[in-house]
Write a structure and sequence with these properties.
Layout lengths: L5 E2 L10 H7 L16 H20 L7 E4 L2 H15 L5 E5 L4 H12 L4 E4 L9 H7 L4 E7 L11 H11 L3 E4 L11 H4 L3 E5 L10 E5 L25 H39 L4 E2 L10 E5 L5 H6 L4 E2 L15 H5 L4 H5 L1 E5 L6 H22 L1
Helix pairs in contact: 1-8, 2-8, 3-4, 8-12
The protein binds 4'-deoxy-4'-aminopyridoxal-5'-phosphate.
4'-deoxy-4'-aminopyridoxal-5'-phosphate binds next to helix 3.
């Protein structure tokens, strides 16, 4: 893919699956109708395609089609879940979240705190996991919403959402999960997790950029962020992009059908890559739980290496030091800091994301290149 580049940054985004693109193309041509134009066949045909896509998105997470609100992505879904929930609560309800959230939750929490809202940020353990006891200890009637990332976008760690869901239900507190990195990679079922709200993004599951969804459990009241037409039950006004909805639906169907086999293959590739690197580098550290982890994720550090230098030495590989949303900010990863890494360890960390089209030969070549160029770097430094 992408010429000679071996793409290992699947947490930033995934390539569009050719089968998804094929499903989308007619909607950029003959099937151009506005899905909200119900007075003619052109509009109704688009509406049917959107309905079918909505059913596919719902099926991926065990929801009903009527509980899926299309958004521009998981950023918007997270904002709608949090701001929309708190605006719908009586009085000044508090917000609870974790120290390892994506920027779209973290920054929303920061703005809430700035405007005087009570915000609690729960810590995670050295393995990156939130202890449900931490959640239990802050669940009071004053809490309007708890928001927990299901699978982390940097260290791939999967949170014990099911247990957290049980606690929230028992306390009668609403629970939101950011499942942008989890859906299509691990089983996600809104009933089993006990969530009221769940955010999704198409471009993390081989669908198009610019579309996502918020699952809203039936009966859960939200205030919209935008004002306009009656689309999406008035919760998200604006004309739906039919082609993107169709692409998202197709991506969800493929994820549902192929997830289990794909996850096993990705976990094998991930373990193969880690073993090659760890065998040659005794001081290599795996950041975050090895057990509760996305199948395609590695996050590794070396104490004496600047990750930026290491990555610059392997231009054949598309890798990153952390979240794409944070790159350019130069701020050290808040996730790695939250699990207790020192600044030097954070500077030495690399995120690897293996995906659907990654071949075993690419994994072997990536391992060889990383090791060879690291040896050269160390020689130059030494
Ligand atoms: N949450 C998580 C965990 C993510 O990884 C991302 C994408 N980096 C988002 C939310 C935002 O998704 P989108 O790009 O669809 O806005």
């Amino acid at each position: 893919m992408a010429g000679q580049t071996i793409y290992l940054d699947h947490h930033a985004t995934t390539p569009l699956d050719p089968r998804v693109l094929e499903a989308m193309l007619p909607f950029y041509g003959a099937r151009f109708g506005n899905p909200h134009s119900s007075s003619h066949r052109v509009g109704r045909a688009a509406a049917e395609a959107v309905d079918a896509a909505r059913a596919e998105v719902a099926a991926l997470v065990g929801a009903h089609a009527g509980e899926i609100i299309f958004t521009s992505g998981a950023t918007e879904a997270n904002n709608l879940a949090i701001l929309g929930s708190l605006a719908a609560c009586q009085g000044d309800a508090a917000f609870v979240t974790t120290s390892v959230e994506h920027a779209s939750v973290r920054q929303t929490a920061a703005v809430l705190a700035e405007t005087g809202r009570r915000v609690t940020i729960l810590p995670v353990g050295p393995d990156g996991r939130l202890d449900p006891v931490q959640v239990e200890s802050v669940l009071t009637p004053a809490v309007g919403l708890v928001s927990v990332i299901l699978a982390n976008n940097e260290i791939g760690v999967i949170q014990p959402l099911e247990e957290i869901g049980r606690l929230c239900r028992r306390a009668g507190v609403r629970l939101h999960a950011d499942a942008a990195q989890a859906a299509g990679k691990i089983p996600v079922d809104v009933e089993r997790l006990g969530v009221d709200l769940l955010s999704l993004s198409a471009h993390k599951i081989y669908g198009p950029m610019g579309i996502g969804a918020l699952y809203v459990r039936g009966g859960v009241a939200l205030r919209p962020l935008f004002h306009g037409g009656a689309q999406e039950g008035g919760l998200r006004p604006g004309t739906l992009p039919t082609a993107l909805c169709v692409g998202f639906g197709a991506a969800c169907r493929l994820a549902r059908e192929e997830r289990a086999a794909e996850a096993a293959r990705l976990a094998d590739l991930r373990d193969r890559l880690f073993a090659r690197l760890a065998n040659a580098l005794p001081d290599l550290r795996l950041n975050g739980s090895a057990l509760h982890r996305l199948p395609g994720n590695l996050n590794i550090s070396l104490p004496d290496v600047e990750a930026e230098d290491w990555l610059a030495a392997v231009p054949e590989l598309a890798l990153s030091t952390g979240a794409a949303c944070a790159s350019g900010s130069q701020a050290p990863s808040h996730v790695l800091r939250a699990i207790g890494l020192t600044e030097a360890e954070i500077q030495g960390s690399i995120r690897i994301g293996i995906g659907r089209f990654t071949a075993v030969e690419e994994i072997d070549r990536a391992a060889a290149l990383l090791l060879r160029r690291l040896a050269a770097l160390r020689r130059d430094d030494g």
